[in-house]
């Protein structure tokens, strides 16, 4: 049975750095896979509005490499979701959930140092509340954000692993569409680090390469 899948990211590249291999696997299995990027991902960080269009072009190319049906853009202001009215963030995600009617959603973990990611997680729960038709929600980790939570704060703790052994190259190639976001090793957003994380998560579950998730909501039995 095929399913409809929606990946939600705060910024352009979150959708591939987090669940990219899993999305490619869903698409390869015949599932209908979509992505939503909630912010424009540039204006707070870069003093060049042309980067907004550049990142949208990159996001579409990335989606194409992953086999996604489409990618949507919320265009909210980058790095300011924590001071954006909650209802505005909700509305962006609700609109896509109503249009796509996903069975499964992949969204950010709440155990993050990036406040945009946390805001997206919280609004995902609102948009996917009972009656939305969403059966399952999984939270993913985001390199250079999730693993930097320290002190006594709760850490990302996965309880589901997906074997992406056949999709690591696809994930890396798709990420390289965001050429302005690729960093040098040992930065977590370097190719070597992405491959190393996939190997590490795979080893935890007995795979050659894996992606890790935490189950947020399950309203139906997972088959």
TrEMBL record:
Pfam families, A to Z: PIG-L
Keywords, ordered alphabetically: Hydrolase
Top-level taxon in the UniProt lineage: Archaea
InterPro entries found in the cross-reference section: GlcNAc_PI_deacetylase-related, LmbE-like_dom_sf
Gene Ontology MF: a single term: hydrolase activity
EC number: 3.5.1.-
Protein name: PIG-L deacetylase family protein
Organism: Haloplanus litoreus
């Amino acid at each position: 049975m095929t399913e409809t899948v929606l990946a939600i990211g705060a910024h352009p590249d979150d959708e591939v750095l987090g669940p990219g291999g899993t999305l490619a696997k869903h698409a390869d299995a015949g599932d209908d896979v979509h992505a939503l990027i909630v912010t424009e991902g540039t204006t707070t960080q870069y003093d060049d509005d042309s980067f907004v269009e550049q990142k949208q072009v990159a996001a579409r190319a990335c989606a194409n490499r992953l086999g996604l049906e489409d990618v949507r853009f919320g265009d909210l202001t980058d790095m300011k979701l924590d001071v954006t009215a909650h209802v505005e963030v909700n509305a962006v995600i609700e609109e896509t959930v109503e249009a796509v009617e996903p069975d499964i959603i992949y969204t950010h973990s709440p155990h993050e140092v990036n406040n945009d990611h946390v805001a997206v997680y919280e609004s995902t729960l609102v948009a996917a509340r009972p009656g939305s038709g969403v059966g399952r929600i999984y939270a993913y980790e985001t390199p250079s954000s999730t693993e930097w939570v320290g002190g006594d704060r709760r850490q990302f703790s996965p309880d589901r692993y997906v074997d992406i052994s056949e999709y690591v190259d696809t994930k890396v190639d798709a990420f390289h569409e965001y050429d302005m976001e690729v960093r040098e090793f040992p930065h977590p957003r370097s190719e070597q680090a992405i491959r190393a994380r996939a190997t590490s998560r795979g080893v935890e579950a007995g795979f050659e390469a894996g992606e890790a998730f935490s189950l947020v909501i399950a309203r139906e039995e997972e088959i």
